[in-house]
Structures are given as C-alpha cells and as structure tokens.
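# step 3/5: fold
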Amino acid sequence: MTVKAAKPAKKNVHWFRRDWRLYVMLILPVAFYLIFCYKPMIGVVMAFQKYSMTKGIFGSKWIGLDNFTFVINRMPDLKIALGNTLLLNFMGLVAGFPVPIVLAIMLNEIRSTKVKKVSQTLLYLPHFLSWIIIGGMVLQIFAPTTGVVNATLRKMGAIGPNDNVPFLTEGWHWRIMYTLIGVWQGMGWGTILYLSAITGINMELFEAAKIDGANKMQQIWHVTLPGIRSTIVILLILSIGQMMNISFDRPFVLMNPRVKDYGDVLSTFVYRAAIQNHEWGRAAAVGLFQSVVGLILITGANIVSKRFGEEGIW
C-alpha cells in the first residue's frame, strides 16, 4: 500500500522538476486574479450594510435586504437603466454577433496575402482605440451642426440649410448609432477568434466537397460553418451571459443630456449612486443583482446548448 501511494507523489515531483518554469510563470496570473478579482468580492457584503467609509466593511451596520428594497421601490431610475441595458445589449447582440463570422469567412477566402494583412489590420485597429478617442471621432463626424456627415448632407441638398439629422441628440437615432459604433469597434476581435477556428478545420473536407461538385457558397455552408459551430455556440453563450453587464466608458462617453433616458444604463446608474451620491451599499446591491442575473442567464444558455447537442462551456 505504501508503494502504491508513493508512486503518484513521485510522478508529481517529476512533473514539477520538469516543468518548474511553467509553474513559476503561473504565479503572476494567479496572484493577479487573487488580488484583483477574488479579494474585491469581499465587498459584496456592502450590499447588505449601511456602509460607511470611516467604519469600513467590518464596522458598518448590517441592514439585510433594505438596500435592495430601497433601490427597487424608491429609485425609479433603476427601471430605466435596467430596460436600457437589456435593450442596448440585445441590439448589440443581434447586429454585432453575425458580423465577425461573416468577416472571418471573407478574410479566409482572400488569396492575396497583402490584401489580407491590410484588411486584418484595419479591422483589428478599432479594438485597441480608447473610447475617449472614439467618442471624439464620433462627435467630429456626427455632431448636429459641425459634424462632417450633416455638413455634407447640407451641401448636397439632402437636408435644409438649417436642418440636421439628430444622430446623437434623438433617442432612437442615438441607440442605433451606439449599436453600430459598438459593432465597428468590436468586430475585429471576434474575427480573430473565428479565423482561428476556421484554420483548425481539416482541409480534406474542403477538397472532398470540391470533388462532390460543391461551389464556394456550398462549401461555406456545409463545411466552414459546421466546423466553427462549437466556437459560435460558446461565444453566443458568453454573450447571453453578458446581457446584464455593460461597460461604463462606452455609454458614458457617447451619452449626452438630451438622450439620458435612452442611454442611462446600469453601469452609469451605479456610478451616480456610488461616486456622485456616496450611496455605496445601494450601488453594491445593484452590482450584486447584475452578477446574479448574469449567472442565471449564462447557466440557462449553457443548459439549452447542451439540450441541442452542443458541448457548452462546462
């Protein structure tokens, strides 16, 4: 019995000696997640406290679910922010999810190496731009009076000399612009993932399809798309899980007072509650609510994907 128990230990020691450099490299990412992801989770307690910065988490008064009750019943802005969050995320999912798939297939079919590299660079570049930079670009292009688009439309006679298209000042115009700008900014990153999945498809399948007389569209439909189906499903599940979460910088930069009721989302609501109004406990309650609903959504999407025969994410 002693010999049998010692064998796994010796095997583990052998692996550690052989791959100790890899284990050392793991120290930094593990430390990062422990310090910046798991340790801050202690702050969830604030959602159940009347939090005071002077007393801290361990000295603040415990009030149970009062923060949740107050936020739901006495803060009408929450319902507006929740509706806007779900609507904007849904519009982004519908408009933006298929775009990287189409772009990846198109790039994969390009045979010119130079054209392919230039196209990939142009597609990936927006992902690395700050939303502050993108917000300035959007203002220069779509501003009501001084924007390039409205100025061009006036010169062409498409609109009157004193008229403008309210791209950024009217609710639904703003929502459409918000969605399209988000698709433009994020499509390059998704394209990288799908291109990687396409390169993993066995080339013999394409050759067999050609022998059977399949044209290019039939090859894409019967070989390429089934080959990346698992990747599509995983990214769709992750996207559904993010329906309750929305970045702070994008709506904060693109929003203005005229479209506040159309662009106010949960992240900006939490910012006002915590930073501007110092309602830390109520802001934490909203954040916890977002996380719980997001977990339910991603779990439900994973269960549905498995019911349809897909692997899911766990």
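# step 4/5: annotate
The chain has two domains: 1-64, 76-307.
# step 5/5: archive (pending)
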